C-alpha cells in the first residue's frame, strides 16, 4: 500500500480521526490508554488488538498500553465468556457484550464474546461508539446477529475485470493471476468484518475458463493465502464453481450429477480444497442460467444438481449456495404467455423438500434483476422445507453504476419488512431469511459487492454507505435506516452537525430521486442493453431477455394478473396475491409491474399515469440539482479529495438525469400524443 | 492453400469448369490448344499466360501449347499495340481489343493492348467469353475502362479482424503480423484483376496502433511483398494512414499540417515507402471523423490537411485519397437543427479549388452511411475544381451482413445513373466520377471489400456477385445489370438455363425484398447500434450519431426541406432540390428521408404510409420464403457445397426477416394505433 493510497477515502469508515471534542475526551479518553487481553492470542484476537491500537493511537495521539492483565485504573478488556457464565445463554456464537464495569480503583470497558469473533465484532462496535461520541461510562449492550450467514459475492474475474463493477479493477486478480497486494485484501477484510460480514465468495458466479481452475492445485495455494487473511477477520472463503468442471478440467466426458464418476470426481475435488483450506465455506453455483452449464443438460433437476455437490461438501461442513436466477433468456418477445418474473418460482417451488440440509437457495430480492423498483420474489417463504438466502446487489448495476448516488438501504429495509404471510401475519421476509420462520439449518443474506481497486473502493464515495449499510442491516434488520446512516456519516465524515444533516438528506432522498427520473411505476428496465447504463426505453422491448413494458399509443405495463395476464400474482400468498391482482389495491409504485393501464389511468395520487411520468421526470432532475447544491454547502467541512469526488459525480449525475428525463418524456409524448399539462419542454 | 480449400466456392467466378457443350467445342475448341506470346514476358504477361493455361487445361482437358510465334493453324495470340498502330488511338492505357483474325492456314484470336495490363484484361475477358459460350469465330471487340481508378478498400486490421467483415478473418493479417498465405492473396488478386480492379488499400481506414506502423521499416518489407503480388495483376497498393503518425510513431509532438517538421517528416516517410514499393499508389485517409485525428486538431482545414500529404507524394506520382465522411458524431438528439446529411457538403464544398491536383476526395454514395436506401450525396458534381471518387460498400454492413442475400448492383447502377444537373442535363453521377464532366486529373470509384478468409471468400456465396459486379460495373457503368448478372452466373454456376434463370431472379429481386422488410421509405437505420445487424427501430433515435426518424403517434420522417426543415435539399442542383423539396414530386422511396409526414399520408402508390409499411413487411417475408423455394429447385444442378451454403443462409434469412417484419410492424401499430387493413397478425 503506497502512502498515496492511504487517503481518507481509502480508509472509508475506519478513519479513526483525531478526536477534537475535548469534553468527550475528558470523560472517556482514559479508557483508550490501555488494552487488556488475557486469553490465547489467536489471529482473530490479534486483529482486534491491532485495530484497537491503531484506532486509539490515531484518535488520541497516544499509543495505548497492551497487557495480559489489568494494570491501570481504566482500560478496555477483551475477554472470553465461557459456557456456564451467566451471559453465555444470551449470546450466540457471533454475539458479544460491551459493558462498563467498575473496578477497585476505576472502571473497565468489557468486550466479551463466546468466541474470538464475537470479541472482534465487539471491538469494531466499540470503535463505532467512539466515532459517534457515545459516553462509555454507562455502556451496557448485548448484540447477537440476526442472520447466520452474512455474505458478500465478488463478481471478479481473474483477468482483473469485474462483472458489473464500477470502481476499477479487481483487488484480487490481475492478468489471470492473484495480485500480490495482500495488504489491500486485508483492508477489505477489515471493512467487511467491521460490519459483521462472515463469508465471501471471491470469484464471479459466471465462472470462465481460467476461474474454473481455482479449485485445482494451480490456484488453491493462492486461494488459501486469501482465505488466511479473511480467516483473521472471521470471514469464511467460498468459491464460485463451474458446474461443468469435471469436463472443463479435462477429467470426464460428462458432468451429470447422477453419474458415479462425476460424484466421485467432486468428492475428491472437495477433499483437495479442504486440504488447503480446512474451514472452506463451500461453493456458490450459477447453473442453467444465462447459458451457464447445469443439471438440465443431463435431464436432471436443480435438486439433483445441488445435492451432488452437497454430498461432497457435507463431511467437511461445507455448504452449497445454489442460485435461483434461472429463466429462459432466449425468449420470443412475441410470446406474451412466458413471463420471466414467474421463472424462479416455477423452477424451484416444486422441488421443495428435495434439497439436502446443506444446500441453500440464493434468491434475488425481486423476480427480475435488481431494478430500481420491482416486486419482491414470491419464492421467499414459499418453500418451507428448504434453506433460503436473500441476494441483494450492492453494486449499482441498474441504479446509476456509482456515477449516480443511490443509497439502497431504504430499498433493502422495505424488502426485508415486506410481509409475506407465509405463516400468516408476522412473517416478513426478514423472518424468512433469518431462518426463524421455518427453523432452517442454514439461512442468511448475501450481496454482490460494489468495490474495486479505485482509491476510494467504490468509485463514488457515497457508495461506501451501501457496503457499510448492507453489513449493518443484515446484522440486525430491525435497525432503522436513520441509525445506520448516522453511524456511517459519523465514521466517514466526522461529527459536524451540518455535515451529518446534509449527507443524511442526500442519502435518504437519493433512491426516490433516481427512481423519479428513470423507469416509472415499477415497470423497470428501459436501459441500454448489455451495459445497463443510461436510458433506452425500447432497449429490451423486442429482445430475448423477457423484459418488456408493452407501451403503445394507449397505455403501458405488464399484465401479470390471473384474470387476464400471465398469472404471476398467484405465486404470492393470498393476501398479497389479491392486493396485486386488483387495480384498486395494487400500490402505485408497482402498478406497471402488475398491470397494463391506459396513460389516462388515475393513480392513487390523483394524477394520470402520463402526467405522473412527466412530473416525476422533471422533478427528478430538479432534485438531482438540489443534491449538488446541498453537497456544495459542505465545502471545507469534509476532506477536500472526498468533497471533489462527490461533487464531480453529482455534476455528472445532473447531466445524465437530464438525458433520462428528456428521453423518457419524449418517448411518451411521442407515443401517447398527450401533452404535459404544464407545457414544459419535451423534445 | 490446402486441397480442401480449393472448393468450387473458393474458385469463385474463375472456376473454368470442363466444357461439356460439344457443339461449342467443335467450333471453338481449336483456338484453346495454343497460346502465342511474342513480346517481353513481364510478370503481368506471365499472369495472363498462367491464367490462360490453367483455364484452357481445365476447360478442355488438354494443356495448350505455348510458343513465342504462331505455329499452329488456330491459336490465341497475345500482342502489344505500339504507338502509331491504327488501334492505338482507340485505346487508353488499360484498354484492349479482342479480335478473331484469319491467318494463312487458319485463324488467330488476338488479345492486344497498349500495355501488359491491357493484355491481361483481354485474357480475362476472353475467358468470360468462353464461360458464356460466345462464338470466337467472329469476335471483334474493343474495350476501354470508363473509370481511371478502380479501387478496393480493405477494412482489415492486423489482429486479423475486419471492421464490418462478415466472411471470416483477414486474408492479409493475423496476430498483428502479415500472414504467410501469399497464395490466397494471389488468388484474391486474380479475382480482382479479372474484373478490372487496379488499386487496393490493404488496411482499415481506422488506423489503430499497430497498423500505424505499416509505413515503418517494421512492416514495409511485408507490404512490399504483398504489393509485388498485386503488381503482377496490374493492381497498385495503397495504405490507409493515421493522420497522427508523426506523433504516434514517437518522432514529433505535433501533426499540424502547416508545421515544417511535420511536412518534412511525411516527405521522408514517403521516400521510405517508395524505396520499398516504387509504384506505391498513395494514402487513403480518414481524418477528423468518428474520433480519428485530423487537421481540425490544429485549427487547419481539410485542404491544408490533405495538401501536405499530397506534396510529399507528388514527386513519386502518388496520390492522396481523402475521405469526406466527416460529421459530428457527438450530436445532441434534442437539437433538430443539426443534420448529419448536410455535413460532408458543408465541410468540403467551401474548399473547392484549394486541393492539390493529386488529392482526390472520396465520397460515400449517400450522405448518411450505406443504407438500404438513401439519397445520393449532393457533393457529386458540386466541386468542379476538385477530384472526386465515389465510395460504395460491397460488404453488406446495413444490408444483411452476407447472411441475407442483397444484390447491390441494381442499387449502384441507379446511383451512377442519377442525374445531378451539375452542368445541366446529361451529367449523371457516372459522368462526374469518371472525370469527364470536369476533366479531372484523377477520378474513379472505390468500394469496401466484402471478403475474408471463409472458404468461399464472402460467407454467403451469392455475395460474390457483388464483388464481381462492382468490378464490371465500374469498368463500364453503361453495362446493364442483366449483362453483369448473366456473366457472373455463367462463370460461377455454369450454363444450365434453369440455373441462370432462377439465380438471375433471386439476385434481381433481393435488394427490393431486403428493403421491403427493413426500414421503410428511405428513412434508414432502425438497426441495432454498433453491430448494425437486426431490427431496432429506436436503436439510434436518441443517440449521438445523428441518425433519427422522429416517429411519433401521428407520423414519421426527417424534414430536410428548406421551407420547414434542415435545409438539406438546397445542397442539390436546382432541379433535384425542387424535386425533393416538394411532397408532390419527392419520390415515394425517399419520402421519409426528406419529409416528416402523417401515417395517413397517401403515397403515389395510393396507399397510406402506415399501410405501405405493413404491406411491404408482410410481403418481404413472403418474398424471402420465395427466394428459398426458388433456390431449392436447383438442388443437384449446382455444386452441392455451394447449394447447401446458400440454402442455409436463405433459411436463416427467412427467420430474421420475420423478426424484422414483426418488430417494425409492432412498433408502428403500437405507436400509430392504426390497424392493418387486412387484419394480419401484428404483435
TrEMBL record, chains A, B:
Coiled coil: none annotated. This is Xylan alpha-1,2-glucuronidase. It catalyses: Hydrolysis of (1->2)-alpha-D-(4-O-methyl)glucuronosyl links in the main chain of hardwood xylans. The keyword Magnesium does not apply. Gene3D superfamilies: Alpha-glucuronidase, C-terminal domain (3.90.1330.10), Chitobiase/beta-hexosaminidase domain 2-like (3.30.379.10), Glycosidases (3.20.20.80). Belongs to the glycosyl hydrolase 67 family. Residues 458-680 form the Glycosyl hydrolase family 67 C-terminal domain. It comes from Halalkalibacter okhensis. Pfam families: Glyco_hydro_67C, Glyco_hydro_67M, Glyco_hydro_67N. The active site is at residues 290, 369, 397. Keywords: Carbohydrate metabolism, Glycosidase, Hydrolase, Polysaccharide degradation, Xylan degradation. The keyword Nucleotidyltransferase does not apply. GO terms for biological process: glucuronoxylan catabolic process.
Amino acid at each position: 500500500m503506497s502512502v498515496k493510497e492511504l487517503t481518507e477515502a481509502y480508509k472509508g469508515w475506519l478513519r479513526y480521526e483525531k478526536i477534537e471534542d475535548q469534553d468527550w475526551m475528558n470523560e472517556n479518553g482514559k479508557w483508550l490508554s490501555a488494552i487488556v487481553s488475557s486469553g490465547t492470542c489467536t489471529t482473530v484476537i490479534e486483529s482486534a488488538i491491532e485495530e484497537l491500537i491503531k484506532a486509539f493511537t490515531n484518535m488520541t495521539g497516544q499509543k495505548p498500553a497492551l497487557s495480559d492483565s489489568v494494570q491501570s485504573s481504566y482500560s478496555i478488556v477483551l475477554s472470553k465468556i465461557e459456557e456456564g457464565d451467566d451471559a453465555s445463554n444470551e449470546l450466540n456464537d457471533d454475539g458479544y457484550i460491551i459493558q462498563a464495569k467498575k473496578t477497585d480503583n476505576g472502571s473497565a470497558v468489557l468486550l466479551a464474546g463466546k468466541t474470538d469473533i464475537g470479541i472482534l465484532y465487539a471491538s469494531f462496535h466499540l470503535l463505532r461508539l467512539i466515532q459517534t461520541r457515545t459516553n462509555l461510562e454507562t455502556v451496557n449492550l448485548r448484540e447477537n446477529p440476526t442472520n447466520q450467514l452474512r455474505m458478500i459475492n465478488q463478481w471478479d474475474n481473474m483477468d482483473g475485470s469485474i462483472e458489473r463493477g464500477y470502481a476499477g479493477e479487481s483487488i484480487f486478480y490481475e492478468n489471470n493471476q492473484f495480485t500480490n497486494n495482500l495488504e489491500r485484501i486485508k483492508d477489505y477484510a477489515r471493512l467487511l468484518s467491521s460490519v459483521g460480514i462472515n463469508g465471501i465468495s471471491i470469484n464471479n458466479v459466471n465462472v470462465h475458463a481460467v476461474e474454473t481452475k481455482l479449485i485445482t492445485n494451480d490456484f488453491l495455494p493462492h486461494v488459501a493465502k486469501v482465505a488466511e487473511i479473511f480467516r483473521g477477520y472471521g470471514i469464511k472463503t467460498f468459491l464460485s464453481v463451474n458446474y461443468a468442471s469435471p469436463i472443463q478440467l479435462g477429467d470426464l466426458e460428462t458432468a451429470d450429477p447422477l453419474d458415479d464418476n462425476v460424484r466421485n470426481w467432486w468428492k475428491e475435488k472437495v477433499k483437495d480444497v479442504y486440504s488447503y483450506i480446512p474451514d472452506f465455506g463451500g461453493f456458490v453455483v450459477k447453473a442453467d442460467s444465462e447459458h451457464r452449464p447445469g443439471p438440465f443438460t443431463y435431464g436432471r433437476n436443480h435438486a439433483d444438481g445441488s445435492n451432488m455437490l452437497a454430498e461432497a461438501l457435507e463431511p467437511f461442513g461445507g455448504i452449497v449456495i445454489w442460485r435461483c436466477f434461472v429463466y429462459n433468456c432466449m425468449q420470443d418477445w412475441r410470446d406474451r404467455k412466458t413471463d420471466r418474473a414467474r421463472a424462479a418460482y416455477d423452477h424451484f417451488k416444486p422441488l421443495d423438500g428435495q434439497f439436502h440440509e446443506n444446500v441453500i437457495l440464493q434468491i434475488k430480492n425481486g423476480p427480475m434483476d435488481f431494478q430500481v423498483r420491482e416486486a419482491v420474489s414470491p419464492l421467499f417463504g414459499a418453500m418451507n422445507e428448504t434453506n433460503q438466502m436473500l441476494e441483494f446487489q450492492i453494486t449499482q448495476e441498474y441504479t446509476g453504476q456509482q456515477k449516480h448516488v443511490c443509497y439502497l438501504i431504504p430499498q433493502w429495509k422495505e424488502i426485508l419488512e415486506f410481509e409475506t404471510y407465509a405463516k400468516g401475519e408476522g412473517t416478513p421476509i426478514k423472518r424468512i431469511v433469518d431462518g426463524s420462520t421455518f427453523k432452517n439449518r442454514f439461512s442468511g443474506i448475501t450481496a454482490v459487492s460494489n468495490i474495486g481497486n479505485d482509491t476510494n473502493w467504490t468509485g463514488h464515495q457515497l457508495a461506501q454507505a451501501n457496503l457499510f449499510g448492507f453489513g449493518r442491516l443484515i446484522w440486525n434488520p430491525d435497525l432503522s435506516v436513520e441509525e445506520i446512516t448516522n453511524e456511517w456519516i459519523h465514521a466517514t465524515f466526522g461529527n459536524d452537525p451540518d455535515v451529518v444533516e446534509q449527507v443524511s438528506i442526500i442519502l435518504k432522498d437519493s433512491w426516490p430521486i433516481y427512481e423519479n427520473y428513470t423507469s416509472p411505476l415499477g415497470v423497470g428496465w428501459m436501459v441500454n442493453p448489455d451495459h445497463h447504463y443510461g436510458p433506452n426505453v425500447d432497449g429490451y422491448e423486442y429482445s430475448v431477455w423477457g423484459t418488456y413494458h408493452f407501451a403503445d399509443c394507449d397505455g403501458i405495463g405488464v399484465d401479470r394478473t390471473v384474470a387476464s395476464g400471465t398469472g404471476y400474482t398467484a405465486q404470492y400468498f393470498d393476501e398479497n396475491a389479491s392486493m396485486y391482482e386488483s387495480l384498486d389495491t395494487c400500490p402505485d409504485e408497482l402498478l406497471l409491474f402488475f398491470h397494463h393501464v391506459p396513460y389516462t389511468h388515475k393513480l392513487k395520487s390523483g394524477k394520470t399515469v402520463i402526467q405522473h411520468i412527466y412530473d416525476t421526470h422533471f422533478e427528478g432532475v430538479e432534485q438531482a440539482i438540489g443534491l449538488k447544491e446541498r453537497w456544495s454547502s459542505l465545502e471545507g467541512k469534509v476532506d477536500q479529495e472526498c468533497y471533489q469526488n462527490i461533487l464531480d459525480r453529482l455534476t455528472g449525475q445532473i447531466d445524465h438525469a437530464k438525458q433520462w428525463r428528456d428521453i423518457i418524456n419524449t418517448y411518451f409524448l411521442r407515443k401517447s400524443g398527450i401533452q404535459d399539462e404544464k407545457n414544459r419542454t419535451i423534445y
